[in-house]
Amino acid sequence: MPANTRSYKPTRQNSDVVLLSSPDMQAVRRTKKDPKPKQSNPARKENHCPINSGEIIEISSDEDDEPVASRTAVASSKLQERIRQLERENERIKLENEDIKKQRMVEAADMEDQVTCEVCSSKMWSPFILPDCGHTFCQQDLENWFATTLKQHCNIYPHYNVNAAVVNVYGLMQRLPLPNYTCPKCRENVKSKPIQNFAMKGFVRVVAGKVGESSPKKTVGSPNNVWNRFFPAQ
């Protein structure tokens, strides 16, 4: 062999390691347990751009360019606008509720007028209608109204008897006139007994329930019998 020829003798230390020695190269070791070498990403190599020393390249988004204080001011302005919007909406709802409340008060007042007696200005808990004119009043008010008329009539005709068409007046049989009962409102002549108004009676209790009122205690006996003292039995 020539003198300048150098031999490379592999040295096997174990079954997993192979050592090659040479004066001109370093030892290379590979084991079975070594992981596979990482493969470089060609795409990243293509995008790689050399950076000269002393030169800095900064990549930032538009949001990063905007100052933090400016973004905070914008967010605060939007929040204030939203608050003002909610306040206006709240004021609108408040006004609508007030209008609804006023409307209900007007309706309640109208219903109160419908169930109020024109004589005593109270609710007609026991309403009676006059058949001759159709007006309705409280039972007690009609009684008092007719009683006043009857008293005046009896002052003129002391022998008047509601259940006797003909009476004995100083030994003579006479037919005395009937009292001139009238409607307290329109003064229409009332010739027949008042009739209990059940429709108005129920309506009065509905309206009273809206305002938390309850009807008074019922009187004992039939209310229709009170008119027998004013009108002849039929």
What is the topology?
Blueprint: E1 11-12, E2 18-19, H1 42-47, H2 62-65, H3 68-114, E3 127-129, E4 136-138, H4 139-156, E5 167-169, E6 172-174, E7 195-196, H5 198-210
Antiparallel strand pairs: 1-2, 3-4, 3-7, 5-6
Descriptive keywords:
zinc-finger; 234 residues; Znf_RING; Znf_RING/FYVE/PHD; rod-shaped; 38% helix; RING-type domain-containing protein; 3-stranded antiparallel β-sheet; two-stranded antiparallel sheet; 5 helices; mainly alpha
Output the strand order for the largest sheet: 4-3-7
Q: Provide the structure class.
A: mainly alpha
Shape: rod-shaped
Catalogue the unreliable spans. Answer: 1-5, 7-34, 42-49
Strand content: 5-15%
Q: How many DSSP H or I helices? A: 5
Distance between the termini: 164 Å
The run of helices and strands is EEHHHEEHEEEH
Q: What value does the average pLDDT take?
A: 75
What would you report as the Rg, rounded to the nearest angstrom? Answer: 57 Å
Helix content: 25-40%
Number of strands: 7
Main sheet overview: 3 strands, antiparallel
Q: What do you see in this structure?
A:
Keywords: Coiled coil, Metal-binding, Zinc, Zinc-finger. InterPro entries: Znf_RING, Znf_RING/FYVE/PHD. Residues 1-16 have a biased composition (Polar residues). With 234 residues, this protein is mainly alpha-helical. Helix content is 38%, strand content 8%. The protein has a domain at 127-229. The protein contains five helices and seven strands. The strands form three sheets. The protein has a three-stranded antiparallel beta sheet with strand order 4-3-7.
